[in-house]
Design brief:
single chain; alpha/beta; Rossmann fold; six-stranded mixed sheet; about 15% strand; globular; binds pyridoxal-5'-phosphate
Length: about 425
């Protein structure tokens, strides 16, 4: 399968090149040349398949031409060592819990898949590939844990000293093995600047193979379609969908998750309606209403993984629907919530249904609550475990009520190991050259 750039100003590339490069040469995002549809018969019996079996069928449609089936199966099964269960919250509203992976957020799925696919594409395994990732918290942990123990790859996580939460820090500084945490005495922007400068340094790039694990990478983004198919299968198995239509609500920031869902629908998955649930960073909400896309600087909210003012995957959605606002606004409906509203939702769901949402999932839940009709079933993506946002959630439901899951507690017990760096590029460069 070839991948083209959404800017259409550079030749198409192979999957391998798209995965290693991340971003197209013309700064566009890679899209698969064709989106293969499933036969109806696949959906007739989908409920008989397990999550891993379904994900493998979907993966074959994306990557079957480029990766031998046997290897692809291994990659998929290994990625999905944890489940993404569907939990009934209240009435016809279900939570698709995407937080059962190692760092308790949905990004684990894409990061784990990408690590394994990259490993597959590395020809000379004795030649290490170095993944550089700058993080303000969550991306670093998903990437570090996704790549942990994967042969042939060393991950360097750059993070701003004193500016990530203790839990986030523990999730990438205690791993050891092929993961090195670099504590930069500066801001997140300084970290990002160091990484970008490294990618542009010609000599450095001839001496060592550097790559990014950015969330726009096709190997992180496409696998997110897996769990949409599984949600449908589990609902079908329980008889919930009889004579009812499926509505899926996606708490959205950079729109990667939503775009993967739209692609699943293009493959034939019967999702009647998508909802993009925003916090106060609501450029998508505004676009859906007005047809005008006006990116702007982000503002801080309690659903901070959605604090995005210029969603990167918006280009993919425009591409998918040929820039038609009409098509896009039929397919997707927008909702947006203030911090105050989000807090109220967390409390209401907790009191009424005994279910604890994180601030992102709460936006998804509430949009269904407001939108859903009699003949519809709603699923919202619960994108992170509420314990990742303990402080915010406990302010709402009371101190000491959020249990720290064993996985998070285990990170906190590990020994923190970091390399200290300044913001000067020469120092970072010298550090990297020691790895050659
Ligand atoms: C990254 C993230 C989001 C936003 O997902 P996008 O794919 O960028 O739209 C939502 N919730 C949580 C918890 C996240 O980590």
């Amino acid at each position: 399968m070839k991948y083209y750039s959404t800017n259409r100003n550079t030749p198409e590339v192979s999957l391998k090149e798209a995965v290693i490069k991340g971003l197209a040469a013309d700064n566009g995002l890679f899209m698969p040349e064709t989106i293969e549809k499933f036969d109806n018969s696949f959906f007739d019996t989908i409920e008989q398949l397990t999550f891993q079996e379904i994900a493998f069928e979907v993966a074959l449609k994306f990557f079957g031409e480029d990766v031998e089936a046997e290897h692809l199966k291994e990659i998929v099964y290994d990625t999905l060592e944890f489940d993404c269960p569907l939990v009934n919250v209240i009435d016809s509203i279900y939570s698709l819990e995407l937080f059962h992976g190692p760092t308790l957020a949905f990004k684990d799925v894409g990061a784990r898949f990408m690590a394994r696919l990259l490993n597959y594409f590395l020809e000379k395994k004795d030649n290490l590939v170095h993944v550089l990732v700058a993080t303000s918290g969550d991306t670093g942990s998903a990437v570090a844990n996704g790549f942990l123990g994967v042969d042939g790859i060393h991950v360097h996580v750059l993070y701003p000293k004193g500016k990530v939460s203790p839990i986030q820090e523990a999730q990438f500084t205690t791993l050891g093995q092929n993961i090195t945490a670099l504590e930069v005495n500066g801001t997140f922007d300084d970290c990002q600047h160091l990484v970008k400068t490294a990618f542009l340094d010609k000599q450095l790039n001839t001496l060592m193979q550097l790559t990014s694990a950015n969330s726009i990478n096709v190997a992180r983004f496409l696998p997110q379609a897996f769990y949409y198919f599984n949600a449908y299968a589990r609902l079908k198995a329980s008889g919930t969908l009889e004579r009812k239509d499926l509505v899926v609500s996606v708490p959205s920031g950079n729109l990667g998750n939503l775009t993967a869902g739209l692609i699943a629908a293009e493959m034939g998955l019967p999702i009647k309606q998508f909802i993009a649930a925003n916090n106060q960073n609501d450029v998508v909400y505004e676009y859906l209403l007005t047809g005008k896309y006006k990116p702007r600087p982000s503002v801080e909210t309690i659903a901070n993984a959605m604090d995005v003012g210029a969603p990167s995957n918006f280009a993919r959605i425009l591409d998918l629907y040929k820039n038609s606002h009409k098509l896009i606004s039929e397919k997707i409906i927008g909702f947006h919530y203030t911090d105050e509203e989000i807090r109220k939702v967390i409390l209401d769901v907790y009191t009424e249904a005994g279910y604890l949402c994180d601030p992102h999932g709460a936006c998804g839940y509430q949009s269904l609550k407001e939108f859903l009709k009699e003949d519809q079933v709603g699923v919202f993506l619960e994108t992170a475990h509420p314990a990742k946002f303990t402080e915010t959630v406990e302010q709402v439901i009371g101190e000491g009520k959020v249990e720290l899951p064993g996985k998070l507690a285990a990170f906190m017990k590990g020994t923190k190991k970091t390399v200290s760096l300044g913001t000067d590029f020469t120092e970072f460069r010298n550090y990297l050259l020691l790895e050659v």
